[in-house]
Recover the amino acids of this structure.
């Protein structure tokens, strides 16, 4: 009976979420409601609830999670300092002489913004406001323009330093330690956020290359759908290379400082996030966009996003505790280990479930609710924790693009002009979904794409 209650608990949480209630309170409320029902019927030991204070203190004392508000601050400050606007203007002129050049510029700027902000919503909205009107005015096919913007915006999921990888790294690290203890290894090896950052670099860059290749192919097959910028407009720009350098060097330098300090072992992700936050302020001062009003707006946005992340983490922690109290983790373990195909069959089912859940839930809920349940089981079955983490991140990135509920599609719909139909946005992302699923398949076939670099750097 307990196992069935754990299943009803999960379904109940999904139903409450689909009704439109706040994620954090839906998870915590559903968990506590079922715990009460279980305690009254004798199917739940209320002693489990005594662990809630310790879990909450564990969240508050988790040094890795301090990186979240710092990276959010860095991203919002860069957005307010108009770094993206300058990047897009100069890169579009640089690549403007070729068909598809503006689309390639959007992809490259999306990559740099992803590495700078790590926030999908902010990147898609910023790129939608800045580049979509320009692309439409210059004769781009609306479907292609929408697809490029949405896909480039989701690169913030996989290209470090990504908030997704910070949160996922913390969860995977705990899951890996738990799986080793379950196997009787009481001196467990650890996996760090830095390992996931390194593991994500090659798949992320390959994804950017694949996007660019698609745009080039589109330019060859249908040049009228991705026209070049008129020559007279390009010639009107003075000192092009000077503008390119002034637009590219500051964000690249900041990204280099943040990632370099982590990968070089000079700083933890949290310390590097602090470097990024200070660096973003310096860039805003350099761009003469720093004042009290800007700082107030950035602090307010940072507080809102960080509060959302941590209150969801609290709700997810209560939910997973009750789920475990009902024996849900044992039910999931038995289900996955009994599947045909062994570890690959279990992995395929988990990836499919996460992909489908990504239609309805944000990556934060999936990371905090689903991953802690399934990751220890999959890691106990012998999977590499870095590879599993990057597979999950890439899968969640794909779900951000997938109609009808992909979050990136909603973000773009919110800022796109009325002349753009929702159907055009949906059709535009289909080729990019195919690219990302192909990348997921390549990563499944060659795990070294994710594991080689961390092992080469850290041994």
């Amino acid at each position: 009976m307990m196992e069935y209650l754990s299943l009803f608990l999960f379904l109940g949480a999904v139903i409450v979420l689909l009704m439109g209630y706040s994620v954090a309170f839906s998870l915590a409320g559903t968990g506590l409601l079922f715990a009460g029902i279980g305690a009254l019927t004798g199917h739940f030991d209320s002693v489990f609830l005594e662990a809630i204070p310790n879990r909450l203190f564990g969240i508050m004392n988790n040094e890795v999670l301090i990186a979240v508000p710092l990276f959010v601050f860095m991203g919002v400050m860069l957005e307010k300092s108009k770094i993206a606007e300058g990047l897009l203007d100069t890169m579009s002129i640089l690549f403007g002489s070729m068909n598809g050049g503006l689309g390639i510029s959007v992809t490259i700027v999306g990559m740099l913004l992803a590495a700078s902000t790590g926030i999908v919503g902010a990147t898609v909205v910023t790129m939608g406001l800045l580049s979509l009107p320009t692309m439409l005015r210059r004769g781009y096919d609306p479907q292609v323009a929408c697809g490029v913007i949405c896909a480039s915006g989701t690169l913030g999921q996989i290209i470090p330093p990504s908030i997704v990888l910070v949160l996922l790294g913390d969860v995977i690290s705990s899951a890996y330690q738990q799986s080793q203890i379950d196997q009787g290894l009481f001196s467990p090896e650890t996996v760090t956020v830095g390992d996931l950052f390194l593991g994500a670099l090659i798949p992320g860059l390959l994804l950017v290359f694949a996007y660019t290749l698609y745009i080039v192919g589109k330019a060859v097959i249908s040049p009228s759908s991705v026209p070049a910028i008129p020559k007279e407009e390009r010639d009107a720009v003075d000192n092009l290379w000077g503008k390119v350098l002034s637009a590219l060097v500051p964000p690249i330098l900041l990204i280099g400082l943040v990632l370099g300090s982590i990968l070089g072992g000079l700083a933890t992700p949290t310390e590097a996030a602090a470097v990024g936050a200070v660096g973003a302020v310096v860039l805003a001062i350099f761009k003469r966009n720093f004042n009290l009003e800007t700082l107030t707006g950035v602090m307010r946005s940072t507080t809102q996003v960080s509060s959302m992340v941590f209150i969801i983490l609290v709700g997810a922690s209560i939910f997973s505790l009750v789920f475990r109290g009902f024996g849900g983790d044992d039910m999931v373990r038995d289900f996955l280990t009994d599947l045909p195909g062994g570890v690959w069959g279990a992995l395929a089912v988990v990836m499919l479930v996460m992909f489908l859940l990504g239609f309805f839930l944000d990556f934060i809920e999936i990371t905090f609710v689903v991953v802690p349940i399934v990751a220890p089981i999959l890691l106990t079955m012998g999977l590499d924790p870095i590879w599993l983490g990057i597979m999950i991140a890439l899968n969640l990135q794909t779900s951000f693009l997938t109609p009808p509920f992909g979050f990136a599609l909603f973000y773009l719909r919110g800022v796109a002009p009325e002349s753009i139909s929702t159907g055009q946005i949906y059709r535009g992302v289909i080729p990019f979904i195919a690219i990302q699923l192909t990348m997921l398949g390549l990563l499944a076939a060659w795990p070294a794409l994710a594991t080689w670099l961390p092992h080469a750097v850290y041994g």
